[in-house]
Specification:
single chain; extended; nine-stranded mixed sheet
Length: 1354
Amino acid sequence: ARERTIAVCFTAAAKTFACAPMKRRHDLSRSTLAWTTSATLLALACLSLQGCNQGGGGSDIDIQNGPIRGTPTGGDGDNSSGGGSATRVISEEQQLEAARSSLTAAYAQIARLEAELQKGSSTCRNMTCSEECASLGQTGRWRFGPHGHDCADPISGKVHCHCSSLTDTTAACAEVQQSKARRRLRERQDSAKLEAAAEPSPATALPHQTVGLSSVTEHVAALVDTSAIADARRLGSPSETISSFCNATGLRQMHGVQGGAEDGPSELNQMESSILADVAEEMEKNNVDKVARDIFSFYVCVRWVPDSIFWTIVKQELAANLVSSVVDASEQLEQAVSELYQKYKYVPLLCSQNLNVFDETDDEDNTYFRHFKKQVNKMSTWFASHGSDEVGQQLQKVDEIFCESTNMNDPSCNTLQGLSDWLTSATSFLGSWGLNAQTKEEKWMAMARIFQSFESDVEGASATWSQQVAEWKEQFPFHSFVHKNEGMAPASSPTSSQRYLVCFGKRVASDLHRRPAGQHLLTDQNNIGCHGFWDASEVQAMLTRMVELWKPPTCQLAEMTYVMKRHMLRMFAQMNERLFDALPALIMDEDLANKGLLDAHAEGPPRFNPQTLLSSTGILFVDGMRVRTKTSIKDPSDCSDAIWSSNKCRLSLSAGSFGTVAVVEGSLRVIWDRDSGSQKLAASAEQLEIVPRSWQATGIQASDLVAGVSTIWDAATSLVNGMFRNRYSSLADLMSGSTSKWVVCPLLDGVNHTHLDSQLGVEDAAFQDHQKEAYSKWTGYTAKVPGEDCVLPDFLSEAYFPGIQVCEISELHADHLEKYTKDNRELEQFLCPLKVSLPAPEQLSVLLEKKGMCLIHMTPNQRQHYQWPYNGDYPSRRQHERKPNLPEVEYELIKLLNVPSKGNVSFAKTCSPEELRLQPRFCHAVKLYNPWPSAAGLASAIAGAVTGTLGVGSSSIASALGDYVEVYQNRDGKNASQLMEESAQLLGEQLWDRLTGAGRLLSSKAQNIASSFSHGLPGAALRDARLEAEIFEEQEAGSLLHSLSYQRSIGSNNRTSNAKERYQRVVAVMPCKDFNPGLEFTIRKSWSSVALKIVQSAFRSLSSGGILDSPVVEFALRGEAHHFLRTNQQTSNNSWTVSGAALTQVNGPGGASDPVECTAGWTSCTPTESCTWSGWNPVTRTCVPKTHLSSSGWWSVADQHLVSQVTSEGLTGITATFYCGPKKLFNDTTPGPRTGSSLLQCLKQGVVTNAQIRAKQPWRVYFPDEVIVVAIFGAITESKCKLAQSTASRTTICTGGATEESALDAHLTDSHKQSTDGVYQGLTSGAGFPRGTPHEVVMRPEDVLEAAGLLSRS
């Protein structure tokens, strides 16, 4: 019988406590696993029941289905739930066999339940109320269910399923149905008593007590008092985890509580439960993380009407003169209240409970957000079904009494109402013939009548109305109001349908209080985070948007939680710092108290009441007056300063010593400055001389109480600095960056760790940083700025990324703060930063300081190809991908130029690491011949190049000048800033304005106007814009930072059982010291125009054709001076020159020969037979190949840009050799390839090839097979001259070592040799490089064909 009883009790209790928690956890005292794993406890409970130890008959028990009720084993016994009948006595063997079978079935049932619970898919979890009660053989009551009863917890007010054996309405349910407000005032009933009240009493006495469910509950509750835990428990909360998995006995031992000999099992269990409850409460209430998370909640309010509750409250507000109406409230209260409502002076609100993101975890995936989302969706569904019901429509109709659908206080509407009132009054004498329009007073009364109908128990209301009002007040149970004497501005007042507010944060904002003579307790309601008013459809949309914005993959909650937690921890640190800073004052007060001086010091000096004394000599002495002694003074007066004296002087003053007068009881006294005791010594008027108040002796002592306090303060400060600071510093050294843990409790034996870990989080990996910052006052710790430190990575090869370093900017964790289950029940893979990242402009500003370094950057096409989307502009989307993203050699290198706090960031682009490694020729700074001697020269060149450009900002121009000065001019060891300052002074304001001012933008890309460099070339404006876009770009700061960010998994830290995967986010930098984007843009734009105009001129001037038929084509361009003389005038300036230029094609049918490679020594230029010096300055001159040009084949150049290029700074001459071929064939050892039968064929094929390869791989920036055109510039090394007249001046025309050549001017026409007032004297041709000539420029094949007129865009 005992075994059978245990089996029955065990099965019933286990099944009840395993299934019921899924539907009504707040009624349980312990969690499921705690019961199902405590077989001994349940057995003891069953054995302690009255009658369990009696022998005799038994009952057949339906173990599988419950409930625990007796069924006769024979006859026609009554099996109703209201009672039982006598049972037949069976043999002992039958009893034992039944007991063994029942026990076996019980253990099998427990095993099944535990397995289902661990899987998380228990059928108990999905049971409806009726199913749950049916399994217990009782009747289920649910919200408006089969019997229409609501049952709810009287404290929390949450509706739950209640099972009863009675079909009639129970007292508790009936009370709930009558009034939800009264339900909250009911005395709290625990689960055991509720079940006991519903348990049927036996109809007749049984041979032994039938074991009932309520008995099990009562006896078990008596053994384990867990009500305190039940109160604090929430699904997934720390208290629930503690109550479910902590070993209470082990916890009792940890707390040092030992059971005495007199303590039985019940007393020990009560001790353990009490300790368990204390620990759970500590975990809930003293939890920084929980406090930080609890802030993320919201509530919704509906703009209600002044119903009976609000009517009472508004009378209190009127009585206290806190709100005023234009109507006399003492005579017309109804109109006064309506006027307050209509003018939005008094806005009644009904508000919902707060929905907290981290309130409770979901049954399915143990996450907070999924449960929160369900709660929000439930609320949204409520709005969909109730927003337009009878109550919702009536709320709108109230507002529409005055102004229909617009806002009630609309001024135009009220003006018409005023006119209507006047007309009604003016025609009232006409009786029924008058105008009977409704006055505003009548409308206010109509409003008041409607207000009174908003009660669920209003007389004469329909059942539907009463039910709907009750449902509205159930959804919005909290009464609030907003009042404002002047009301709302009409322009911002809500319309009749705009009734809903959504408010972030906790509701309560102050202590409880009440109005004078008020009959309601009030508290301030937090409305700082409110937005609205919305209509029903809008509030649904806002709720959906909130869920989308706050879901974990957006990282919004992670960031806000970190910020909130950081603020709180910083406050704790400030508490510590304030105590330390206050220690000197505290110790001083302690010392003053010991000396009896504290009260006097605390009270401070008394009011001024200066005493006066008129001496016998007629001198008035006043307290505080400064005096000087005329004679020496000693104290005591008969003392001696002699070494051998036994009566030593306490004070010895010489004549001229200063003091302060103190009149004491009519006697003249002085406090002498040098008296350390600050005593008031008697003095005579004859001894004293009055001096200005500001006079004092050096090194004087403070007097009176001040002197003592100063001494004490100094001692206290020394003590704090000497002893306390050392202790604080020692503790700070220990705590800063340390790990500190609270050992909460031991685990239950045999606990399922998988199930346990599903309810656990991880340690706060950012907490150590918080600790370091908190103790920085004593340790001197300074947090590193993200991205400031860079290191050589071990996960990237320096062979492919020469000189690469990575700079960590963030650490991201998977599923931070928690995992997220999508609607399709799939887990979303995402990351969130452990700490709040620097704002993008600030982070980029840090990177901007890395001088001489370029950052590896993903282009938009590369981000698309490698699936690295930026969602910073879409905060409700996943922000960080959970995937590795390492730098690739095909990404481009960029240099930051300007990072404003707002607006786009500008940067310049150069090669990819791949191209830098394979073809450094096109990545390093181009070699310049005859560089500018100053920044002013470069500035002038840049000014011409940037005219009409929008992307070349002033920062890039300034950087270009600074870098140029540092590289090309710094021979005195000056730093860049010094050189730039000197150069800026030389530039002058006008030239700087040309460079950076608005004037250069007057000709913009939008107007398709090219600069003078490219003017005259077909497609010049578009080509200039393309070149600008190839080098310069702007991008929004967040998007740019994302394009510079790379990440890799660094695994979990293995510090917790379910530590999350971590990702290190970095930016990657590589050396690019010689990348000068402003200079490169200037060179490429100006000198590609020179090369293209040379080709254009050749095709316009040479009619024979075949210009590009050779594989390599070379041209020569020289500057010329046409000399003229006025022969009929005897003036000092009778000679002048006209500048010109001439071109020739140098190569023959076989093509141009490759330039000789010349080497400059200290004094020689080798090989001497093929090379010579170019330039007159021994420091800047260059060693170049000699050129030998014939006099034939030249033609005059009409393009003034070409003319200026070789004549603006003296006569110069250059050669331009054109190569064409795949980029990979251009190397550092040869000038260029000789591919194909002709340059023209290479150009045409190159256009097609380039189009194909770029279309195949649009994300790449470097194409080894891309066909390019390279123009290499050389110098004409010989200057020549021609004397056209025998009387011409040789010294004027053949200067600078020019050699005569008779056919030098053969290409000139007669017009070139004519002048209106002079005679042609001869010609001089130039030699040597113009200023800033590059070694080469790179062009596209289509550019050359377009310049030649062989390819047209139209």
